[in-house]
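sorry for the late reply, my laptop died twice this morning and i had to redo everyting from scratch. anyway the thing you sent over, i finally got around to it. pasting the sequence first so we're on the same page, its 275 residues, then the predicted structure underneath. double check i copied it right bc i was rushing
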Amino acid sequence: MRRYHGSRLLLIAFTLSLVSLPVQAQGLVTSLSEHLVSITSSFTGDNILVFGAVGEIDDPSMSPFEKYDVAIVVRGPVEPVAVWQKGRIAGIWVNQESVTFRNVPGFYAVATTSPLREMANANLLSRHQLGLNYLDFARAPADERKQDTPVHQAKERQLDDLAAAPFQAALIRNRQREALYLQEESAINFLGERLFRWTVSLPATVPVGNYKVEVYLLRGGQIVAAQFSPLFVYKAGLERRIYGFAYDWPLLYGIAAVLIALSAGWLANAIFREE
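ok and here's the structure:
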């Protein structure tokens, strides 16, 4: 309840601040309810309010009767991902073929005021990767697959973009099931004629890293204004120290994890033996 009231007060203050802005600067003004999300042991997810205002845009090529549309994208952090296709050999399911993508966002959410197809053509949507169907993960060339094993490289076929499409579609479906990929068309609410807002839900499994919040203002099928804001998701407290230790000293972290597991098993065995 406290966060809800805080968001309302923030939105009111944002609205009042627009009064002092010149008309030309009000083409598109946006902000977030918070720019830092800390992950602790009790983290169960978070809601980020994205809000803004649409002002007058002096563009003689646009009809005054054409309505505005807004698209909001939250994406990041980007990492390479290998997607495997399983097949049956002698009745056993094994990994057979794979495709490695190099620009896969760990989290992706898009929301709009209207259906995407009604807002712009496919070329514009693909150029800005607006919508799950228009994402481009960019397959990694063979010489960039440093994390791949020789066996992996031998099994990966030289697939063209059309043949690699099912691998990308499967990856997107998996991320949707994990609530890491979202598409909410016609979900952005306008408060009156100028103010808009949308709340994006970050799941408990949201990746740590740097995010970018992109807000696009469209009219007549074209982007007429855009604003970008940073969003940071980081681990705090003990979780941050453990995460940093695992990242900086992976070998020592692995050895420590094995020793702790062995100690816990030995202790449990000793307790049951006494009983």
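Confidence is low (pLDDT under 50) at residues 11-26, 142-158.
thats about all i looked at so far, will dig more tmrw
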